[in-house]
Amino acid sequence: MLALLLLLFAGSGCAALIYEIVWLQLLQLVIGSTAVSLGALLATFMGGMCLGSVAFARAVRQGANPLRTFASLEAGTGICGFAALFGLPLVQGLYVSFAHGGTEGLLLRGAVCCICLLPPTVLMGATLPAISRAVPRPTVGFLYAANIAGGVAGCVAAGFWLLRVFDMAVATYVAVGLNLSVAAVAWIAARSTGSVAFEPESADSVDSGAWGIYFAVALSGLSALGAEAVWTRLLALTLGPTVYTFSIILAVFLIGMGLGSAAGSAMGRDTRHARRNLAISQGLLVAAIGWSAYMIAAQLPYWDKNLFGHGGVWAGFLRDFVFCGIAILPAALCWGASFPLALASVSGNSPDAAKPVGRIYAWNTLGAIVGAICFGIAAIPVLGSQNSERLLVTVAAAGAFAALQHTWKWRAALAAASLACISALPQTPWQLLAFGRRLPLEVGKTDNGWKRLYSAEGINSSIVYTEFVDHRRFFHVAGKIEASSSPADMQLQRSLGHIPALLHRDPKSILIVGCGAGVTAGSFTVHPEVEHITLCEIEPLIPPASARFFAKENHNVIRDPRTRIVYDDARHFTLTAHEKFDIITSDPIHPWVKGAATLYTKEYFEACKAHLNPGGLVTQWVPLYESDLATVQSEIATFFDVFPYGVVWGNPGDFNDGYDVVLMGSNEPLRIDLDAAQRRLDAAPEAWSCRISRTPANCRSRSTWLHSTIWCPAPGRTSSHRPIFWEQRSR
Predict the structure, then answer these.
(1) Which of 6, 64, 182, 351 has the most crowded CB, counting CB atoms within 10 A?
(2) β-sheet bridge partners, residue 599
(3) Strand pairing class (612-623; 581-586)
(4) pLDDT for 218-245, tens place per residue?
(5) Whole-prediction pTM value?
(6) Could you count the other beta carbons within 10 Å of the beta carbon of residue 100?
(7) Which residue, among 212, 368, 389, has the nearest Cα to 298 in the 3D structure?
């Protein structure tokens, strides 16, 4: 029976992680992908599990068959998962209708999270207390380990197979199938077992020493989720901020916690020393956090990225997995051991196994909620990653202090070790924040001609402003260069603004998605027709910093009285905004960066189209570098599926195969009037003087240069390096 229960709980954990990944991604499309929105999602998800673990023992009588109760919980979770897939579009429609900014908007986002996530997560949280009534108490920790092992399988399956090869719907169907299969097997197995008799509830008590255990396990959950938030931000710089990197980091965390839980369960069989072992695991966590901080900041960024050869993406995934394991596995082992050791320390106080299991689970989850919110939203932007890791060491030491009883010598030794670890933690190098995974190639351990002007870790991303030895300035975000004063970048950034401003009949209201260096937004300031400029940026640190270091290039647009800055996820803003614009220009980060691909989707382009005034224009940046042919084809085809009246503008730079392109589309048949553009240029000479590259020698006028930059192959025509097809409808 124990082997069957381990298998069932592994299946339950697999389904739960698939749901978590799918639901968080789907709901981020509804309420946005800012750090605040993600914090609300995680808090609601874990809060529901906390409520379920606490409420189960009181809501379900002790005489109920544990397996049938477990089966009912699994079936209910599957039903909720199926309903969420089809109910989210309805929720999104209602949310968009009532969405506002400020406190009301935050409350509405919280309400959406509660409506969608609380019912299934409450059922998930009740499964471990429910099944604990069917097994000897020392084996509950093994069930917890099996659940985490299933979570590893779900994380890898969702991140590398279900969502890559299929879609959200297929992933949900797989999770629902797992839930229903587990429920069916558990229900059949319940026929061979009778009701379990327990002693009266009145015998239950909580001694004063148990509160130290609850406090310790809560601090363990707090440090675990806090460390995951900090280290995921830093490891994404070294490994690349892709969806696969986040799946690898989560999988390594879960593997370590599963192994640690199994080891803790084995040690917890001897309940006499369970509390001591819990204190030891928390004490070892102090050293493990120090090890992880050292490896992530001082070692991994400089290691050879071709450790496993040039075997393609899968060799890269294996390398990233090894890097993550070396860095964070020791700490994850300690966190995993904490739950079963804490359970063994208090399980003797209650005749009903569900009560101590629910309490320990609830306290651990409550601490995890606090850690996810405090470190993900507040600690990193306020304290920075180094001081956040110092705070993690302090929290781990406090957990060990809480578990220790009347052992002042050990507490003094632990305090000394914690202070030594805190003082030795390395600072995150600005070169890592700037160059990410390209650090060994671009800079190495020396500055190599680069000068740091400014660096900061924000609530959503880390940013750096640098200057090269030739006085070119660069803006870095997410460990990569996003904008610069280099000629090719300046031409692209200004083309995104000048081209639609010159070709629109009367551009008055502008929406710019993504601030960057502010050059695109600043391009509109030289056009006298423009009256309102709305700049949507997800990271609050970027606009003021760009106003400081790129004021000349962006015409000080941040301080222009016509400029209004909105701090929000661009997709969320375009869905919920009620105003319309004459021009919408979008210059997001590369689509392979996690979360950025939503700004290249059909849904996003349709939202932009819905917010255009008649005759409005949309421009979209598409990179040809750090990409491949299929991706570029998909991006262009998606754009022209929504905007069939469009043009591709080339920005070849110094590259034979092109550097990047600007897509321009309209909600009406597009007609390019070069004579009107010439008159606009004559009326606004600043627009012409802003152009960085020289006029080609064969161009007789400015409008001739404008026309020469258009890339519009005839239908069916192909080039040797970009065979892209679409119906040509423009002039």
Answers:
(1) 182
(2) none
(3) parallel
(4) 999 999 999 999 999 999 999 988 888 8
(5) 0.86
(6) 12
(7) 389
